[in-house]
């Protein structure tokens, strides 16, 4: 937000400078993405318990006087761009999930399930219940069912893109520690964008221990050019959609704050804003991304999801506004958030954001069968095997291909059992609360 005490509710879109954005989850959740994005483990959460002391007398960090210490969680979270944005905002404004390593997956958009069901079943005669898995290759959505494969041109899926995706400006997860995607590299490899010191430690460690093979992105084709093009296209197309909504009187508040250097104006504006205001400005306008941040930070656990829509099932604490603060669609001051991130370098690319190096990577072990090289699975296996984390909360394919289940993983063997690709929507931030 600007340095004022009120939220700007209008903006001259023609003159606004939109910073370059970019991202995307752990065992396999990649929701119907309509442009190739890194598909690996989605909604990953690695948790390692340790004690944290604060100052003289070992006072508790949260200042509860009867305790001398508390358990803190070290977490690795893998998600699409909007989920990474939610994580970063929650870390700074709510103070939760601070010790988190994030892996972002490239993401163009995903689709409304109900609309896709109509397309798949009515136009192509394939029952959703019969689909074993989905894939996206060479401009086609591939449906695998039994011994058959049905191809749907991606162009035919565009009318069914979720409306919240149409105002997202981030393709390659620019706020993640590491961004991964199946764009810019040949088959069997993924692009790995290393952004922060945490990300560099994770990638360099996995490479040194032989979990992944990496080479400079300049050594492979087609290279970073296509990533930059897709990022630019997404930003321009979705900014135009945001303008159209503004003209119709539909507010798009996260766009207003994209260039703000401080959280101050938003924090002031958000005082007293509870779930009703969140519902009015985000959920009812179709801007909710179903990330689960609101549920993850709720201190009384009264926000649940009904068919990917947040609903309140109890009474809020008086004056609590954590759900409003955490939501990535109530405000997203990118410059302010970037100040809180320990980037490994100072350089910025207009389309790719800040990074220290870009690699082509793939898993070394033939036991890892993850999509496009299995890089995310290999990174997680490294973290588990070396004791960097104790457990992983991830997503595995459920009984139906489009409905993933949460899995708590404690060793790399369990991790491999959850690996794969799932094209479906998932409320990933709820996993952090669990």
Task: Explain the overall architecture.
- The protein is of the alpha+beta class and 434 residues long.
- The protein starts with 43 loop residues before the first strand and ends with a helix.
- The strands form four sheets. It has a nine-stranded mixed beta sheet with strand order 9-14-8-7-3-2-1-15-16. Strands 4-5-6 form a three-stranded antiparallel beta sheet, with no helix packed on it.
- Residues 1-73 have low confidence and may be disordered.
- It has helices at 81-93, 113-124, 197-208, 224-247, 253-256, 264-269, 275-283, 293-297, 322-326, 334-338, 375-385, 412-418, 430-433; strands spanning 44-52, 70-79, 99-105, 133-137, 140-145, 148-153, 178-181, 190-194, 212-216, 303-306, 309-312, 348-349, 353-354, 357-363, 391-396, 405-409.
- Strand 2, helix 1 (81-93) and strand 3 (99-105) form a beta-alpha-beta unit.
- The chain is globular, with a radius of gyration of 21 Å.
- The chain has one domain (75-110, 162-432).
- H/E series: EEHEHEEEEEHEHHHHHEEHHEEEHEEHH
Shape: globular
**Given the structure, what is the number of helices?**
13
SS-derived structural category:
alpha+beta
Number of separate strands = 16
Give the % helix.
Answer: 25-40%
Low-pLDDT residue spans: 1-73
Tally of separate domains: 1
Instruction: Report mean pLDDT, rounded to a whole number.
Output: 79
List keywords for this structure.
nine-stranded mixed beta sheet, three-stranded antiparallel beta sheet, globular, disordered N terminus
Short description:
The chain is of the alpha+beta class. It is 27% helix and 20% strand.
């Amino acid at each position: 937000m600007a340095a004022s005490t009120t939220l700007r509710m209008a903006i001259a879109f023609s003159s606004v400078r939109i910073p370059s954005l970019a991202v995307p989850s752990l065992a396999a959740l990649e929701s119907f993405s309509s442009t190739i994005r890194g598909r690996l483990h989605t909604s990953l959460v690695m948790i390692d318990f340790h004690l944290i002391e604060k100052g003289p007398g070992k006072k508790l960090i949260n200042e509860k006087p009867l305790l001398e210490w508390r358990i803190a969680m070290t977490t690795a979270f893998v998600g699409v761009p909007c989920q990474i944005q939610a994580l970063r905002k929650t870390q700074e404004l709510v103070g939760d999930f601070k010790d988190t390593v994030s892996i972002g997956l490239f993401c163009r958009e995903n689709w409304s399930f109900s609309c896709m069901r109509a397309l798949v079943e009515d136009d192509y005669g394939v029952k959703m219940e019969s689909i074993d898995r989905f894939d996206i290759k060479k401009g086609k959505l591939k449906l695998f069912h039994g011994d058959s494969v049905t191809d749907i041109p991606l162009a035919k899926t565009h009318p069914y893109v979720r409306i919240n995706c149409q105002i997202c400006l981030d393709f390659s997860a620019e706020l993640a520690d590491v961004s991964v995607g199946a764009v810019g590299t040949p088959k069997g490899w993924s692009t790995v964008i290393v952004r922060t010191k945490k990300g560099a430690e994770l990638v360099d460690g996995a490479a040194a221990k032989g979990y992944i093979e990496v080479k400079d992105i300049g050594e492979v084709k087609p290279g970073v050019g296509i990533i930059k093009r897709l990022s630019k296209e997404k930003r321009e197309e979705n900014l135009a959609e945001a303008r159209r909504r503004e003209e119709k009187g539909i507010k798009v508040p996260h766009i207003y704050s994209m260039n703000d250097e401080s959280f101050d104006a938003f924090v002031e504006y958000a005082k007293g804003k509870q779930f009703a205001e969140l519902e009015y400005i985000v959920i009812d306008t179709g801007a909710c991304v179903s990330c689960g941040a609101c549920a993850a930070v709720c201190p009384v656990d009264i926000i649940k999801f009904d068919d990917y829509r947040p609903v309140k099932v109890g009474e809020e604490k008086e004056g609590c506004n954590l759900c409003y603060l955490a939501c990535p669609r109530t405000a997203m001051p990118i410059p302010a958030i970037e100040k809180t991130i320990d980037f490994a370098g100072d350089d910025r690319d207009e389309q790719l954001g800040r990074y220290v190096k870009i690699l082509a990577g793939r898993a070394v072990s033939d036991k890892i069968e993850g999509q496009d090289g299995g890089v995310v699975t290999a990174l997680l296996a490294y973290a588990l095997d070396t004791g960097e984390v104790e457990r992983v909360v991830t997503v595995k394919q459920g009984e139906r291909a489009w409905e993933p289940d949460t899995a708590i993983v404690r060793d790399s063997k369990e991790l491999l059992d959850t690996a794969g690709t799932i094209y479906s929507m998932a409320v990933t931030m709820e996993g952090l609360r669990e």
